[in-house]
Amino acid sequence: MLLLSLACYTAPLIEDTSSYPSQAALSGEIVLAQGTPAGGPGVGHVLLYDLIDPPPPAGVGSPVTFSTVAEDAWSYATYADVDGVASAAWSMTNVPPGDYLITALVDNDGDFNPFPGISDYAGGATCGDQTGAYVASATATGPLPVQLERAQNVEELSLLVGSPLTTERPAYVMGTENPSFDPLIAPDPNDLAGTLQTLTLRSTGIESPLLRLNPPTAQDCPTLFTVMKKDLDGDGVADPFSDPAVAALGGLDMWPLVILSYRRDLDGNPVEEEVITQLLVSPFGLPDEVPVNTPFATDTLPLMFLPLAQRTNADGSVDLLSGDDFPRGEYALVVINHTGQLWTTPNSLAELLPEQGATVVIR
Amino acid sequence: MSTLRTPWKAAGWLTLLALALVSPSAHADPKDEARRAFNGGLELIAAGDYEGGIASFEQAYALVPHPVVLYNIARAYADAGDYQQAIVYFEKYLETEPIDRTEVEANIRLMQSRLAEMEPIAPTTAPAAAGTGTGTGNATAEEIAQLQRYAEELSALADTLAQREAAAEKPVVVPDGPTETGPGVSTGPALPPAEGAGLEGGLVEDLYARKVVTASRFGQDPLEAPAAVTLIEREDIQASGATTIPELLATVPGMDVMQLTAGQADVSARGFNRRLSNKLLVLVDGRSVYLDSVGTTLWATLPVTMDEIERIEVIRGPGSAIYGADAFAGVVNIITQTPGEPGAQNVVRLTAGTKGTTQGATVITGRTGDLGYRASAGYTTLGRWGKEIDLDNDPYWTSTVANQDRSLEALTANGQLDWRLGDEGFASVSGGVSDGTVELYSLGALRNFYFDQRLSYVRADAGYGPFYARVFVNSQGGVVGNWYEPAGTTAPLNANLDSTIADATLTGDFSFGEAERHKLLVGLNYRYKQMDWDFLGQSPVEHHLGGYAQLQSRFDPVLVNAAVRVDRHPLLDRPVASPRLAVITSLGQGKALRINGGTAFRTPTYMESYADLYLSTGTDGIQARTIGDQSFRPERIAAFEVGYMDESSDVFRAEANLFVYQVDDLIDLGPVDTTGYPQSGFDPNAGVYIAGESSFVNEATTYRAAGGEISADYFGLPGLDLTGSYALEFINQSLEGQTTPVRANPRHKLNGQVVYRSPFQVDATLGAQFVDKQVWGIRSFDETGQVVVTDAELPSRVVGTARLAWTPAPPLTVSLNAWNWTADITGPTKQHPLGQPVGSRYTASLAYRF
C-alpha cells in the first residue's frame, strides 16, 4: 500500500510564459445580415485593432492580429426573420491582454492581402467587399471595443458586416509633380489666391500584376473620390471645420479625410516623430447643390494646406506645431473615404507605377 | 573510566568495519570474481593441481552459476581419475539440457564401464587349483587381462597428463560467443576432439569472458573490437537501480543524454545531440528500433523490460560499414537474455516511487530440450517533471491528454522461442508490443507533443553453419499532436501515423586460413518502408538495399579489420559507400592499441523528405508551410580514432580514446523563404495566408570535433567496485570562412560510481554524473513569420544516483533507489533549454528472482 501511495502524484506547475504565454482568445460568428453577394461570400477576415490606433475611417491603424474564415465555411440560416443569411464561425487565439476594436471584412473578390509590404495597397476593402462589423447591438454601427484580460476566453461575439461596398478605394495620383508646401505661408482671407496653398489629386484606376482597381472591363465601382459634406448636428447645413480660423476661411467638415504623415527629414533620413497634418477638401470646387451627408463622386479632389501640425509624444500628450516648428521633410499622404476605404502614397506599387511613390514635401 | 574506554570502543567498531570490508565473503562484481576464480582453476589444473583447480571452479560456480563450469569440474575429476565424482558432475551438467548431451552421455557410459572393470574381485575360500583360480598362487587369465587393462589405463592417464602439459603452451581456439545476428545459443564445451583418457571433449576455457558482438556482427573480445566499446552488463544494470535505459547510457563515457520530459530522453554519442536526436542507431538484439518517421528512438516505448536485458553494448563512432544508414555517431545494441540461457532467472519485480513512478515487470524463461522460451511483460508510468499550464485556472488553453500529471504510460509484452537444430543450427521466432502514451518535445517552434502509440514487431531468425537469415517487421501506429492547444482553435496540430518497416538480412560468416586466422563476413540487406502520416504530403513506399563485407585477419600480434558497406537509398542519387579500417595491436596479455577510421551517413527521415504541414506563426491568419525535400545529400561523418585498452589486471581495467571527426551536410530546418508567397494571397488548402515555406535543407556548415575519453574500473578491494570516466570534446563549426565553437555541446563530462557488495546481503551504490554548461540557439517566428534565433544558456549540472539493496531471504531483494537526488539540493534543472526542469526520483523495488 505504501508503494502504491507513493505513485499518486500531481505534477508541479512550472509556468513557461515564453513557450505558453497566457493570452486571450475570442470566438463567435460573422453574419452577413445586410446581404450576400451573388456568388457567395469570399474569405472572411476578423481584424483586431489596438483601441488607441483605430481602423479607418476613425484612424489609420493596422490590425495587430487577424484570423480567417475559408469560403467553404459559410452556411445559410435564418437570421432576424430573414432566410438565407450567410454566417460562419471564427476564432482568434494568441491575443495579448489589452483593449481592442474588432471588425470583420469579407473579401468577395479575392484581392485582399494583409502582409506587410503588400497591405498598403492590398490590405483594404475594395468594391464588392463587405465591412463595417460591430458586436451585435441594436444601435451600434462600426467596430466596438473589446477588453481582454489574461487567460480570458471570450465567446459568442457576433460580427455583423454591411452590404457589399459600392465604392472603390480612392486610388489617386497627384496633380502636381513633387508637390511641396511652405508652413510659413498662412492663408490670408483677403488674399486667398496668393496665400492658399493647394494640391489636387486625380483619381485613377490601378492595374498592375498585383492589383486591379477599376479594370478596363465593366465594373460597378469606378475609381472616384466620394466627397461628402458632414451635417452631424442635423441642421441641414454643412458643418464648418472644427478650427474656427479654418472655418473662417470657408473650411467645412468633409469627407474624405486627407492626412499627411511625417516620414523623412529633408536629408531623407527616417524620422521617429509622430507628426501629422490635415489637408482639407476645398469646398470651392464643389457644386453648391450637393446635399449634406450625401456622397458626391468626383474624379478630382482639390485640397488645401493648413500650416498646423500635430505631434503625439511618447506620453500621449499632443503638441501643436506651426511656423518654424513645423517639421520639414517628406510626408506620406493618405485619403480616407467615409466607407473606411483608403489609399496611401507612397506605397509598394511604386516599383511598378512610379507615381505611386509620390510624397508631399514640407519645406 | 568511560573516557579510557571510548578510544577502545572506536577501535573496536573500526576493526569490525574493516573486517566487514575485507571479509572474504564480500565480493566485487560477481562476474569478475567468477572469471578470476575460473581462470585460476584452469591454471591450477594445468599445473597438475586438480584438487585446487576443482575448488576454484566450484567457487566460480557459486558466484555465477554456469553449466559449463559443471562440465569442467566433471572433466577435471575424470582427468584426475575420480570417475565417480566425474559422473556426478556430468549428470548435473546434463540437467541443464546442453547441446553436447550425446558426447557427455558417451563419456558417462565409458566411465561407468571402467568403474565396473575396476571393482575388486572377491577372494575365494577354497584353495585354488593350480592355474585355475585366484589366490596367493598363480593369476587366472581373467585376472591377468584385468591387470593388463589397469596398466593401459595408467598409461593412458600418463599420456593425458603429458599432452595437457604440452597443450598449455599452445593457444586454444575459443568458440565465438553469442552473436547479435541471432538469439544466443548456449556456449558448449570446446571443439577439440577427444584426447587422453578416451573421453570426448576437453576443458572449456575462456568462460565468463567479456564478449561484444555489435562492433563486428560476431562475438569478439572487446580488446579486438574495431571501435570504442562499452559494455553495460546485467550485474551493472541491477547495481545501478536505473529504471530507464537512458539513465544507464548517461554513465557511458562520451554519451550525451538529456531529458526533456520524464518520458523522453534524447541520446547521442560524442556531441550533436538535439531534440528528437537522430544520430544514434539503436538495436534490440540486432533489430533496429530507430523511428524512420522523425529519426529518433523513443526509449520509453521499446517493448523490452529492464529485467530481461543481458547487456547493452555501446559503440561510439561511425558504424555504417556494418549497419548502414543511421549508425552515424554510434550504435547501441540492447541484448536480451537468451531464452533458457544458463543462469537466466525468472523475475517478478514491482517498483513504486515519487513523481508518479510505478513499474512492474515479469520475465519467465526456460528450456525444454532443444526449445528455449522467454516471455516478459512490463508496465511503466512516469509522472511529468512539471506542468507548463494550470488548465484548471487558465481557460485559454486546453489539452486532449487525459492525465495531465503523467508523462509516460507504457504497457509492453515480449515473447521469444528458440530451437536448437543439431550442433550447427538454430531457429527463433519472437514478437512484442508496446502500447501507451508518451510526452515528448518536438523540433523548431513546436513544444510538448503527446504520442498515443502502439509499436509492435514480429521477427524470425535462422542459422545453419556459417549462414544466418533474419526477417523482422516493425509496425507503428498512433496519434501525435500538440499537448496544449488554445481553446477554440480551428486548426489543432495533430496527425495520425501508421508505418510499416520490413527488413530482411542474409549473412555468411566464413573462417579460413591457418588456425582460421581470417574471418570473412558478407551480408545482404533489404528494407521496405511505408508510412501514412498526416504531416506528410504523400504516403511513400521506399525500398532500400545494402551489401556489406568485413574481413578480419590476424597477423599476431596485429589484427586487421576492414569493412565496407554500400547502401542504395531511393532518394539519394547514387549509392553510399561506408568504409572502415581498424588495426589492433596486442601489447601483451590483456592490452591492445587500436587505430581506426571510417565514415557513416544518415539518410533523410520521412519528415525531412515528405513533410507538408502548416505551422502557426503566432497570428492565426498566417502560417508558415514546412515541406520536405527529396533531393538531399545524406549527412556524412568521417572519423579517425586511436584507442588503448588495458584488461591485463585482475583488479583493474582502463580505456582511453582520442578522436577527430568531420561532419558535413547536416539536415535541418531552413529559414522561411517568402519568395512568391505574400503575393499569392489566401491559400484555400490551408485556410490561411502563407508567410512562406521552410524546407529541410543540407546545412552548408562543416563541423569538426576533437576529443577524448578515459575510463577506469578498479575492483581490487573485496566487495568494492570503483568506476570513473572523463570525456572532453571540442566542436567547431565553419561557414564561409568563419569558424566558431558549437556551444550547445558540453565540453566536459565526468562520471563516477562506487558499488559495494557487503557480506550481509546488503549492496550499496553511489554515483554522480557531471555535464558541462551549454548555450543553445532557439528558433522561433517573429510577427512577420520570419525565423529568429535567440541564445539560451544552460548551466552545468550534476546528477547524483544512489541505491541500497537488501536480500533478506533470497531470492527476494528489496532496494531503494535515488536518481538525481542532487536536484533536491540545487533545485530541478533543465537538461535542454526548452525542456522541463528535471527533478529527483526516489523508488522502492521488490524483486523476486527464481
Architecture overview:
The complex is a heterodimer of chains A (about 375) and B (about 850). Chain A has about 375 residues and is mainly beta. Chain A has helices at about 1-5, 120, 190-195, 245-250, and strands spanning about 25-30, 45-50, 65-70, 75-80, 80-95, 100-105, 130-135, 145-150, 155-160, 170-175, 180, 200-205, 205, 210-215, 225-230, 255, 255-265, 275-280, 295-300, 300-305, 310, 320, 330-335, 340-345, 360. Chain A folds into two domains: about 25-160, Immunoglobulin-like; about 170-360, no CATH class. Helix content of chain A is about 5%, strand content about 40%. In chain A, strands 10, 11, 12, 17, 18, 20, 21, 22, 23, 24 and 25 form an eleven-stranded mixed sheet that branches. A five-stranded mixed sheet of chain A has the order 4-5-1-9-7, with no helix packed on it. A four-stranded antiparallel sheet of chain A has the order 3-2-6-8, with no helix packed on it. The termini of chain A are far apart. The model of chain A is unreliable at about 135-140 (pLDDT under 50). By secondary structure, chain B is α+β, with helices and mostly antiparallel strands. In chain B, about 20% of the residues lie in helices and about 45% in strands. Chain B starts with a helix and ends with a strand. Chains A and B meet through α1, β1, β3 and β5 of A and β8 and β29 of B.
Q: What secondary-structure arrangement, pairings included, does this model have?
A:
The complex is a heterodimer of chains A (363) and B (850).
Chain A: H1 2-6, E1 24-31, E2 43-50, E3 65-69, E4 75-79, E5 82-95, E6 98-107, H2 119-122, E7 132-135, E8 144-148, E9 153-161, E10 172-174, E11 180-181, H3 192-195, E12 198-203, E13 206-207, E14 212-213, E15 225-229, H4 244-248, E16 254-255, E17 257-264, E18 274-281, E19 296-298, E20 300-305, E21 308-312, E22 318-322, E23 329-336, E24 342-345, E25 360-362
Parallel strand pairs in A: 1-9, 11-25
Antiparallel strand pairs in A: 1-5, 2-3, 2-6, 4-5, 6-8, 7-9, 10-12, 12-20, 13-14, 15-16, 15-19, 17-18, 17-23, 18-20, 18-21, 21-22, 23-24, 23-25
Chain B: H1 2-22, H2 30-46, H3 50-63, H4 67-80, H5 83-94, H6 101-118, H7 141-167, E1 228-233, H8 234-240, H9 245-249, E2 255-261, E3 264-269, E4 280-284, E5 287-288, E6 309-316, H10 320-323, E7 330-336, E8 347-353, E9 357-368, E10 371-383, E11 397-398, E12 406-421, E13 425-441, E14 448-464, E15 467-482, E16 485-486, E17 494-512, E18 518-533, E19 541-555, E20 558-568, E21 576-586, E22 591-602, H11 606-610, E23 612-616, E24 622-627, E25 635-646, E26 652-664, E27 667-673, H12 677-680, E28 682-683, E29 688-698, E30 702-714, E31 720-735, E32 738-741, E33 748-757, E34 762-771, E35 774-781, E36 787-794, E37 797-809, E38 812-819, H13 823-826, E39 841-849
